[in-house]
Design goal:
Belongs to the thioredoxin family. DsbA subfamily. Keywords: Disulfide bond, Periplasm, Redox-active center, Signal. By secondary structure, this protein is α+β, with helices and mostly antiparallel strands. The chain contains nine helices and five strands. A five-stranded mixed beta sheet has the order 1-5-4-2-3.
Length: about 210
């Protein structure tokens, strides 16, 4: 009797694990044409996108994903140029942030300046955000037209085109899978964030 009970318990646990596993077509979508050479985990966003603001600053989805990723997994974030009056310039500014390694310093104040105070009206205003965040003006100016930044801009544009990006926020894993926000557990915000992070972790580890 005890053996039967243990066997049943094992089956129930196995079923639960299977039920909790992300499903192709629901929590994620396998791309028809995988793109080789893309970052392990790649997030696209725009400072002009209100949903991206919530995703990053309110729901903290990116932070939750980072916490769940296996050790050594790199998460990369690219800005898109197809939103907002300064979309191209903002993508170049994000490339500057990447080149100088100040993405974390820039993200919150830039979102605030674009979405809340609406003080970004020119390229000079973008520069001011960097200066206020502690970046030296001469470092910013030197990076703005540098070869490294131009290469990073091209890299962001190419990835968006190669992955046939339709909108933001969007996250891809290994150039093979796109996370499907619509397929996540919508019973609560916590459940959504957990399901999203678990899905990315599953895809990173997926063979």
């Amino acid at each position: 009797m005890k053996k039967i009970f243990l066997a049943l318990a094992g089956m129930i646990l196995a079923f639960s694990a299977a039920a909790a596993q992300p499903t192709d077509g629901k929590q994620f979508i396998t791309l028809d044409k995988p793109v080789a050479g893309e970052p392990q985990v790649l997030e696209f966003f725009s400072f002009y996108c209100p949903h991206c603001y919530d995703f990053e600053q309110v729901w903290h989805v990116a932070s939750a994903v980072k916490e769940k990723l296996p050790q050594g997994t790199k998460m990369t974030k690219y800005h898109v140029e197809f939103l907002g009056p300064l979309g191209k310039e903002m993508t170049q500014a994000w490339a500057v942030a990447m080149a100088l390694g100040v993405e974390d310093k820039i993200t919150a104040p830039m979102f605030e300046a674009v979405q809340k105070t609406q003080t970004i009206q020119s390229v000079a205003d973008i520069r001011d955000v960097f200066i206020s965040a502690g970046v030296k003006g001469e470092e910013y100016d030197a990076a703005w037209n540098s070869f490294v930044v131009k290469s990073l801009v091209a890299q962001q544009e190419k990835a968006a085109a190669d992955l046939q990006l339709q909108g933001v926020p969007a996250m891809f894993v290994n150039g093979k899978y796109q996370v499907n926000q619509q397929g996540m557990d919508g019973s609560s915000l916590d459940a959504f964030v957990k399901d999203y992070a678990d899905t990315v972790k599953y895809l990173v580890e997926k063979k």
